[in-house]
Amino acid sequence: MERTNAQPSFLDHLTAQLGGKRTGQLLSRVNELIDFDAVAAPIRALPEYQAKASDPGRRPWEAALMVRCVFLAKLYNLSDPQLEEQLRDRLSFRRFVGLSLDDRTPDETSFVVFRNRLREAGLHDAIFYGVLEQIERHGLLVKQGTIVDATILETSRGTKRKEANSNGPKDSLTRDPDATFTAKNDETYFGFKGHNATDLSKIVTGYSYTTASVHDSREIDELTQGEQNAVIADSAYSDRKRRADLEARGVTPAIIHKRVRGQKELHPWQKKFNKLVSRVRALVEHPFAWMNKVGFTRVRYRGLARNMVDYVLVLTAYNIRRTVGLMG
Q1: Do 147 and 109 have their domain in common?
Q2: Cα(157)–Cα(190) distance, rounded to whole angstroms?
Q3: Which domain holds residue 56?
Q4: Low-confidence ranges of the chain (pLDDT < 50)
Q5: Which of 110, 130, 279, 304 has the fewest CB atoms within 10 Å of its CB?
Q6: What is the CATH number of the domain that holds 281?
C-alpha cells in the first residue's frame, strides 16, 4: 500500500501562482501530455505496494510521484541530495509531483530505494516503453526509418591503492570492473556505451547499453529487427551481409559506405549516397546533444546494471521533453 498525500490546503491555493513561471508552464504541459499514473501501474504491482496498511514496515512513496521525481532529476541533472533539496525548496517541483506544502518530502534514500526496486524488478523498461506508447498515441512517431548511433559515457579510470594479501601489499585499482576501454579518433576512453534507435521525429524508440569495448555494429541488428522501411546509420555499421539481409526483408539499407579493401576511393555514386544519408543520419545526434546540454556526459554509478537503469531514465526524460517540444 502506498503512502497518501494530504489534500491541497488553503495555503496551497494561495501559492498556486507562485514559483518559476517557465518551469511551472513546462511541468504543467508535461502533466497534460503524460499520464504518469498509467506509467507507474507496473510498479504498483510489486509486493511492496500490495502490502496492507496493517503490515509492519514503512509504506513506499506513491509510485507515480516517484516516477515524476525521477523525471525531474534527469531533466535537470540533479543528484539525489539535490533533488531532495529542490523538492523542499521549489513550489513548481512540489506541485508537479503532487506534494502539498503540508506533505513530507521524499529523502535521498527514498530515491536510491526506488531505483533499486526498478532495477531488481526490471521495470525501467516498463517506464521507458510506457512513455513511448503514450507518445505514439499522440501521433508523434514518424515510422519511415530507424536511425542508429552510439555514445560513450565515461567513468573514472580509478586510482592506485595498497591492498594487503598473503604475499604482502600490492597495488590495485579502484576502477569499475564492469567498465572497459575503447578508442575513438585516436583517443582512449573508459566506461560504457549507450546505443540508441531513433525515429525520424528524433524520439528514441529503442536502446541497448553495453560496456565501452563493444563495437557499435554489434547492437544495430537487434535495435532494428522490427524496422520495415529503412535503417539509417554511419559507416561504422557498414557491412555487406547486413545490407543484403536488410534488402531481403524489403528494408532500405541507408548505411554510409566506406572503402573496402583494395578500393582507393569511393565511387561517385557512393559519395552522393553518403551525402544524402548524412543529412538524415544527423537527426540521431539530437538526443545525444540534449544529454550533453543537461550535463549527462559521465556515468553516476558503479556497475553496468545501475548505469543502464540511469541511462534509460535519462532517455525517458528526453523523450518526454521532446514530446512537449513537438506538441507545442
Answers
A1: no
A2: 6
A3: 10-121
A4: 10-16, 18, 171
A5: 279
A6: 3.30.420
Note whether 188 and 282 are same-domain residues: yes
**Contacts of residue 122, Cβ cutoff 8 Å, sequence gap at least 6:** none
Confirm if 13 and 71 have CB atoms less than 8 A apart.
no
Can you tell me the distance from the alpha carbon of 297 to that of 313, in angstroms, rounded to the nearest whole number?
14
Cβ contact 87:80 at 8 Å: no
pLDDT tens-digit profile of 104-160?
Answer: 999 999 999 999 999 999 999 999 999 999 999 999 999 899 999 999 999 999 876
Q: Which of 174, 164, 205 is nearest to 315 (CA)?
A: 205
What's the CA gap between 40 and 134, in Å, rounded?
13
38-75 pLDDT, tens per residue? 999 999 999 988 876 655 556 789 999 999 999 999 99
Amino acid at position 147, single letter: I
Task: State which amino acid sits at residue 164.
Answer: A
The set of cell numbers assigned to 70 is: 525521477
Considering just the CA atoms, what is the radius of gyration of the chain in Å? 23
* Stated pTM of the model: 0.88
